[in-house]
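debug: dumping io for the single-chain case to check the tokenizer round-trip. Nothing else runs in this session.
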Amino acid sequence: MSARLGTPRLHHRVTDSTSDRARALAIAGVPHGTLVTAGEQRAGRGRQGRTWSAPPGRALLLSLVLRDWPPLLPIVGAVAVADIAGPDAAIKWPNDVLLDGRKLAGILAEGRRQEGWAVLGIGLNVAVRATDLPAELRDRAASLGLEPAAIEPTLEELLRALQRRLAQPTPDLLADYRARDALCGRAVRWAHGTGIARGIDDSGRLLVERPDGTHTELDAGEVHLEPGAAGGVVGEP
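debug: decoded output
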């Protein structure tokens, strides 16, 4: 994982989804580190089939093609984004980076180990203003509060952070994630129950203590803070 990230780079003024474009390139055989960016996405993808909404020219929208990657790729992406977002950034399992309880960034990782490719997609609100968003999202989304001119420097900073985190030993990566865990010790709900989040295990699964004292591990799905818990329910930006 020593090859430089971000080269070659394909930038679109407008595209459907950087991850869709990167996946097609990965299948076509582009090298490790190939970067796809866009000024605007018409069909940006999040987890669970959701769309990623961002105003044109104010968010960093990127997808990286990787040929060699660690098992905990979504965690790599989240911790790297948190690195550049600053000490107050927190990570909400499985793929959101928060500021003040609001969503700053989303990470989507997908791949085919048997085919030798992965795509790491990141949407990061760099210069998004509340007035740029639909009314229903204004109290859910965060931004770095910078100007559009900062998107390229932020991209370079993020690529350096990703390079470091991809090479980091897993125990150290997990420790850094746990230091920013937004859910640990808090009441959560998911599709099949409620409980208290107890951090993540070494495989990146969310550990939850159920009301009856038993424990379960979640390896996928959407988790929300219980109504009434500090911070409220975090939504999609």
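debug: round-trip ok. The radius of gyration is 17 Å.
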